[in-house]
Structures are given as C-alpha cells and as structure tokens.
Amino acid sequence: MSYRPKFISFDCYGTLINFEMGPTARQIYSGRVPAEKISAFLASFKAYRLDEVLGDFKPFFDVVERSIQRTCKTYGIEYRESDAMTLYNAVPTWQPHPNVVETLEKIAPHYPLVILSNSMVDLIPYSVEHLKAPFHAVYTAEEANAYKPRAQAFEYMFDRLGCGPADMMHCSSSFRYDLMTACDLGFMAPTLIERGHEPSAEYPVERVSDVRQITTLLGL
C-alpha cells in the first residue's frame, strides 16, 4: 500500500537526529554513579523526562534540569549545577542517523516535510541545519505551549498547516511520545521507524526497520 499525504511530519530527536541524552549523562555521571547502577540511573532519567513534559509547559532546559535532579535524588547521587547545562548544550551537536539526510532529500521534491519537535525555537535550528533537507515547516513545543505526547502539540501543527490528521503521515521512533497520540488522533499513516528506543506496542502503525523504507510507503 502506498500513501499520498498532504504533509509528512517527523519527530526530530531520536527519529531523525541521534538522541544522545543517555550517552551524555553516562559520561557526566560515570565517576559518581556505581557501574552496576548506571543503567538503572539512565532508565530513571528517561522516565523522569517523560513525566516532566506531561504537565504544564516549561522550557526544555527546565525539563532536563528537573528530570536529572529527580534522578540524582532517587539514587542519592550528587547533583551539580553544571550537569543540566552540559546535557542541554550537547543537543546542538547531535547528528542525523544514517540514511536520514538522503531519504529526506529524496522525499522533499514530492511531499512537504514538517518537523514537530519537543524542542525550543532557539534550539531546533541546529538540528534542522544538520538534516539539510528543505522543510516546509518546523514546529516546536515552545510554540505549541505543550510537549508531545499531549494532543495539543499536534493540534497546533494542524492549525498552522490548515489540515487534519487524516491528511498526514507522521513518522517517529517513539510510541510513547508520538505514535500512540498519532493513532488516537487518526493520522492517515502513523509510521514507526524502529530504532529500539522503547518496547514495541500493539498499535495500528506502519513499521519500517530502515528510514529509507518510507519512500516505498510513498510509492517513490
């Protein structure tokens, strides 16, 4: 089956850009967290980040800061004020996953590309530059005043594009942040790019093991 969406939206961090928050945290805390606890520490940091975006909007730096502070408290680890800034400042350096740039460049002449990211207006341009493709629009949680997985973030995108979910394909490597909500909202083609970030979930999505396979779903 091939799709003909009006727009194709993508999550950015983790899906297009290699999300290295965990590896960065591992470097910061390797001398403070015992080796046998570091995996659990990083899993808690990931869980707290999700929890932090589910409430009222706050800047992404605050999300990072609050989640790493809560993780340190849970494990009785010293938190230093520089920790959150080091994590946050790493974001602009992260690079695309393999095959992402060329795939976006192949799709762009045929379909308008959109990013919907849990990011900030002054942070996302670094990642967009790394991706190189001509995006029709880039929307952030800051503009939507809400983070995914909240439907408000997606509704902001619909309003700006002047279309509904039934007109769109949405691609992400995350069920929790993107695809559960995308399915609930009725996207034409919620598409999972399988990167092993999370356990699989039984939702009606297209599944691709390689980002290049999206072109097949589009008949390109």
Question: Approximately how much helix is present in the residues?
Answer: 40-55%
Query: Structural class, judged by helices and strands?
Result: alpha/beta
- Given as residue ranges, the uncertain stretches (5+ residues, pLDDT < 50) are none
SSE order in H/E notation?
EHHHHHEHEHHEHEEH
Please state how the strands of the largest beta sheet are arranged side by side.
3-2-1-4-5-6
Kindly describe this structure.
- This protein has helices at residues 21-29, 38-53, 60-75, 81-90, 100-107, 124-131, 141-144, 151-161, 175-185, 214-217, and strands at 7-10, 113-117, 137-140, 168-172, 189-193, 206-208.
- It has two domains: 7-18 and 94-217, HAD superfamily/HAD-like (Rossmann fold), CATH 3.40.50.1000; 21-92, Putative phosphatase, domain 2 (DNA polymerase, domain 1).
- Helix 1 (21-29) packs across helix 2.
- By secondary structure, it is an alpha/beta fold.
- Strand 4 (168-172), helix 9 (175-185) and strand 5 form a beta-alpha-beta unit.
Core attributes:
alpha/beta, 12% strand, 44% helix, 220 residues, DNA polymerase, domain 1, Rossmann fold, 10 helices, 6-stranded parallel β-sheet, single chain
